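Here is one record:
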Amino acid sequence: MLSQFVRIPKKKVLGDLNYNFPEGTNALGRLDENSEGLLILSTDKQLTGLLLKPENLHQRVYWVQVHGVVKQETLKLLEEGITIRMHKEDYFTKPCKARIIDTPSNLALRGHPVSEDKTTTWLELILIEGKFHQIRKMTAAVGHQTMRLIRTAIEDVLIEDMKPGEVRELLREEIYEKLKIEMPKVNS
């Protein structure tokens, strides 16, 4: 589904979930229509600003299934940073962590599963930035098409055993703590 509440014909959006979201709820960061996983929703405008500030360097953890067999040299290229196209210009990504992982267990079924006759590799990528389609562009730049992309964590906010479409509420203090953001002082 799309990471938005505004309805678009023939597309699923957050408003289609079986949950009564408070007015003013926004997605903090986005997942594109072909990506899965953790999405933080909040009515706290201060949290939005603090989380999305590039200087705050919040870690985002992704499981990525790519086409082909990934070599250690490729992981090193990803980790050191790689040039991708952003808004018709070259952009050099910030260093990240990259490793090959076993196929994750208990993955939700997809409407369009990856064919089992294709050779794929699962990676775990830990980034501190989140540019438009960045992971897909990074894997393409090293010759591996992203087949499946799942965000599993933002700092200490973990997807854990949540199912697609499931909503879990966190207290304001809890979300700030898990995101490693100092909670703003309340003016008296």
Observations:
- The CA atoms of residues 18 and 154 lie 24 Å apart.
- Helices lie at 45-52, 72-80, 134-141, 172-178.
- DSSP finds four helices and ten strands in the chain.
- The domain at 14-178 is CATH 3.30.70.1560 (Alpha-Beta Plaits).
